[in-house]
Amino acid sequence: MADVAAAAGVSITTVSHVLNNTRPVSDELRRRVLAAVEESGYTTNGVARALATRNTMLIGVVMSFLSNPFFAPLVSAIEKTARRNGYTLLLTDNHENAADETTQVGIMLDRRVDGVILAPAAAHAEPVLDLLTRRGTPTVLVDRFADHRFDEVCVENVEATAGLVTHLTGIGHTRVGLVSGRAGLSTTAERLTGYREGLERAGLPFDRALVRSGSSRVAPATEAVKALMASADPPTAIVSANNAMTVGVLRGLRELGVQVPADVAVVSFDDIAWADLMNPSLTAVAQPIAEMGNLAAKTLIKRIGGYAGPPEHRTLAPTFQHRQSCGCPVPGSTS
Question: pTM score, two decimals?
């Protein structure tokens, strides 16, 4: 850094501020420093910096981003904000297994990550959360509410799911089925609660036979929808509780020769990237994934920086995307 400072004609402090984005520097000084860096081939020594500052500039991210398509864009949003603030992500997939998750977080803590963003694998995540508490590691829980000791960034699930059911009952459906997520997740419980509230608002009884678990995965959701359609009094409309299961639901209906929406209406919690390209296009609740990831990263970085206020619990509002799979006219559509 001293060589870079001498070449650029600035102080070592100015070089540090440019490289670490710790204080505003004029465009001219920044240009000179970066030119000197390029000319000298200077690179920062992450180990030395960690020893000197006690910060590794690493953020651990633990969630099932390989097996659950919802988490991939969430990780992307987290990474974008983290990188903009000088942090690098250390990623691991918990495979929705609480024991594996605790082991993985322990390894990350041994690598001295500055903080952790976690989508807990189970509703009862006490082992991993107690570990993070004991180590005093700044932590943000994302997507799933699990423990109010920590900052949490999630999406509203109950009212959004009730809205999907209300939409279906409002166009005449009285047999509304639900393909629910994996047991033990807060999102699964909240969306089931929303489903029941939607039925109650329509004056319809809750029928356990109309709820089947798709375990938050494609193949189990395929079998779940087949079981629903094979019942003596099958549903005329189906709510799928996440995007992976929506793929399974649509696959199962196609294998049965059931037409959407002519034979059965389908709506989804989670908007799929190609939802508007389907025929019919998919009516869904879209989660603000980019906003969730950005907010989770910003919240964690604030904690790493020393913020000691009470835990923040942020619930973001999803958006209803009205398309054609529900079987009713879409406002503004000419078809």
Answer: 0.81
